[in-house]
Amino acid sequence: MTISVLIVCLGNICRSPMGEAVLRNEALKRGITDIQVDSAGTAAAHIGEDPDERTVAVCGMNDVPISHSARQVRTSDFTSFDYILAADGSNLRALERHVGRSQGSEATVKLWGSYLSDNKPIQDPYYGGLDGFTKCYEQCVKLSNAFLDEVVGKES
């Protein structure tokens, strides 16, 4: 059975496309191929744009392939995905209020950080330097592995 995951941030150019790429990469490292990963934003400001160049740079430095065109969360996402994981509390609240949430959705909608005991949101690195993107990457790796441990099973 294929697991489907949507990673969500505000604009879908920094955190969520990085999270999408990292989760897919961590799953492949474990030999997990029956996973579908996508990302989206709660806002429409960057629809159609490529990921931020700093997101691409950090993924490249870590040999994580990334290719994405920004999009906004759609009503159909709530029935298409098993898991919808928000980068932070603000985006989680937007997802919980989304009209798609009430239209027969069985998706698990939660803070991605809830898969770790610290329950930390992913800080938005957009207004900072490359350091913030590196921290975002490191957090995405930890969260990806924690998610996969819980949903698929511990690494052997």
Give the C-alpha Rg: 14 Å
Helical segment tally? 5
Question: What average pLDDT do the residues reach?
Answer: 95
Q: Which class of secondary structure composition applies to the elements?
A: alpha/beta
Counting DSSP E segments of at least 2 residues, the number of strands comes to: 4
Helix content: 25-40%
Strand content: 5-15%
**Low-confidence blocks of residues:** none
Using the alpha-carbon principal axes, give the shape.
globular
The major beta sheet can be summarized as: 4 strands, parallel
Question: What is the spatial order of strands in the main beta sheet?
Answer: 2-1-3-4
Order of helices and strands: EHEHHEHEH
From the N-terminal CA to the C-terminal CA, the straight-line distance is: 20 Å
Polypeptide structure, described:
With 156 residues, this protein is α/β, with parallel strands linked by helices. The chain contains five helices and four strands. It has a four-stranded parallel sheet. Helix 1 (15-29) links the parallel strand 1 (3-9) and strand 2 (35-41). Helix 1 crosses helix 5 (130-151) and helix 2 (53-61) packs across helix 5. The mean pLDDT is 95.
